[in-house]
Amino acid sequence: MKMLNLNLFTKLGLFIYLFIYPIFPKIAITQNTNVNMPKNLEYGLNTRNLKLIKDAFKEEENLKIQEKFTEIIQDFPNSKWQIKKISRETSKENLFDIKVNGKKIVNDETFFLESNFKYSFSTYNNKINNGNIKNLLTTIRNDNNKIDIIFKIPEKVLTGTKYDIDIILNEPLGDVIIAGGIISHQDGSYLKQDINIEPLASGGIFKTTRASSKPTTQVWSGIIAHPKGIISFTKSVEIVEKI
After folding, report:
1. 225 with 178: CB under 8 angstroms?
2. Which listed CATH number (3.40.50.1010, 3.20.20.70, 2.170.190.11, 2.60.40.10) goes with 3-240?
3. Which keywords does this Swiss-Prot/TrEMBL entry list (predicted)?
4. Is residue 209 within 8 Å of 163, Cβ to Cβ?
5. pLDDT given for residue 119 in this prediction
């Protein structure tokens, strides 16, 4: 089968991951950590307030951040962000629940973007400190949810341990032929690798891998091609020393 480059739909999932990591800690530092913070961040992203983003960064970072944000807007111009604070009485950790949705028409096909993740942070002098994205899953699909698919990828795993990555199509395939592939990304290589597309005779993607020996975040992206449509996905896995 041919090599499928990280095209529009797979890249967008990675762009959201790469864009959010630098944006949220630094935008949030400019705000008070009060009940209005989630709404302030939500408003800035939904109104495409580039000035808010620019003001949150040093001059050398501005062009890079604006470029990434502009690519998301160009590919999904109607994307909407929802940000809610999650209350945790037993922890000093602050936690946001964040969702991003959008759609795009390509060659008369409508592709839907959906991204869900948690954003955790501590506070110091009323400013966000130690921001971290957790359990990110981004999908872009054009099947109108006709494909019954489950992503069984853990939120976090221990350093050095084996873990399973299962993307399962629940419905019987019969004579249906599907194809797909998955790849992990390391720092600096997010948009430089190709996904090798192969026939999937087992009804999904099933992979066993080993976590790194040091704490980090591993990012997986892949694509499944089905007669009913195409689904691309990006998922983060947190590698930790203890759970």
Report:
1. yes
2. 2.60.40.10
3. Membrane, Transmembrane, Transmembrane helix
4. yes
5. 77
Domain boundaries, the chain: 3-240
Q: How far apart are CA 223 and CA 9, in angstroms?
A: 9
Give the span between the Cα atoms of 101 and 81, in whole angstroms: 7
* Helical segments of the chain, H only: 8-29, 37-46, 50-55, 59-75
Would you call 45 helix, strand, or coil by DSSP? helix
Dig out the tokens for 57 from the structure. Answer: 């960064």
Joined tokens for residue 205: 């993607």
Among 29-33, 89-93, 234-238, which is the least confidently predicted range?
Answer: 29-33
CA nearest to 147, candidates 164, 166, 165, 172: 172
Separation of alpha carbons 138 and 105, rounded Å: 18
